[in-house]
Amino acid sequence: MVRTIAARISALKADTRGVTAMEYGLIAAFIAVAIIGGLTLLGGNLDAMLNGIAAKFVAPT
Predict the structure, then answer these.
(1) pTM metric for this prediction
(2) Which end of the chain is less enclosed by CB atoms within 10 A, N or C?
(3) According to its UniProt record, what is one Pfam family this protein matches (predicted)?
(4) CA within 13 Å, CB half, 35
(5) 9-54: pLDDT as tens digits
(6) CA 34 to CA 47: how far, in whole Å?
């Protein structure tokens, strides 16, 4: 029985099927954090820039 448990544990250590999916998940999470951080930092400046452009347009009469 101990031999069976040891064999199963070593088989689990050798199994790497889920590692790739986990790596892709971590990469996607880091990209999402970078995008959210960038938008947070640039959000106010972008809003001010677009409002400035919109203020230069004249409504047709």
Answers:
(1) 0.50
(2) C
(3) Flp_Fap
(4) 6
(5) 787 777 666 677 788 989 999 999 999 998 888 887 888 888 999 9
(6) 19
Helices and strands in the chain, H and E counts: 2, 0
Q: The tokens of 59 are what?
A: 């409504």
Q: What is the C-alpha separation between 2 and 59, in angstroms, rounded? A: 82
The residue type found at 34 is A
- Exposure string for 34-53, b = 16+ CB within 10 A, e = fewer: eeeeeeeeeeeeeeeeeeee
Provide the token pair at 39: 């938008």
Place of tokens 């199994």: 15
The one-character DSSP state at 59 is -
